[in-house]
Design goal:
It contains seven helices and five strands. Strand 3 and strand 4 form a beta hairpin.
Length: 181
């Protein structure tokens, strides 16, 4: 009986990235960014290519391996999608109910999803909760982070500065007087 030949390690074909230097993108944990350059780094004895991202809201630089870029970042939303984000802010807010720890976990999952609509839900829900009954320091930090993430992407999507994006966000959020009904 002939022995089967062992499968040789076949290198994965390199797929062409749909991202390029100069693109405006969104990192799920850091928000909107610009791809500044492509660099080669030797890490653990292996040469790899990375995209260098400059995060819009912080003095932060993030390196993402080119081979994982499609799984890590996404393009900035369009103006049409931005209008839908503002519509999400006007939707009925979800309340914490009696289980705050469960609500915190859900909000945290939304924050790390990379989905701008889920981040908008976090901003809406925490803003309303803060206006109605106040929120904990941890939730205030989450709200601040969510607002920063949302504003940074709206800046790029609508091609406006941070101040204008913040004004548009504030105008779209429910007002305290609208919540007392």
């Amino acid at each position: 009986m002939a022995k089967k030949p062992e499968a040789a390690e076949v290198p994965k074909p390199r797929r062409k990235s749909s991202f390029a230097v100069g693109d405006k993108v969104v990192h799920p944990h850091h928000g909107a960014a610009i791809i500044i350059k492509k660099v080669k780094q030797k890490i653990a004895g292996e040469n790899r290519e990375y995209f260098q991202l400059e995060i819009a809201t912080d003095q932060l630089t993030v390196y993402v391996p080119v081979e994982n870029i499609e799984d890590t970042i996404r393009p900035v939303i369009s103006k049409t999608q931005a209008r839908k984000v503002f519509a999400t802010l006007k939707d009925e807010p979800q309340e914490a109910g009696s289980n705050w720890s469960r609500w915190y976990k859900i909000l945290n999952e939304k924050m790390t999803s990379g989905d701008i609509f889920q981040v908008a839900e976090v901003v809406r829900d925490l803003t309303v909760a803060q206006q109605l009954k106040g929120i904990s320091p941890a939730l205030k930090r989450m709200l601040s982070r969510a607002r920063t993430t949302l504003v940074s992407e709206m800046q790029f999507a609508l091609d406006v500065n941070e101040e204008e994006a913040t004004k548009k966000l504030d105008r779209a959020l429910p007002k305290p007087e609208d919540l007392d009904e």
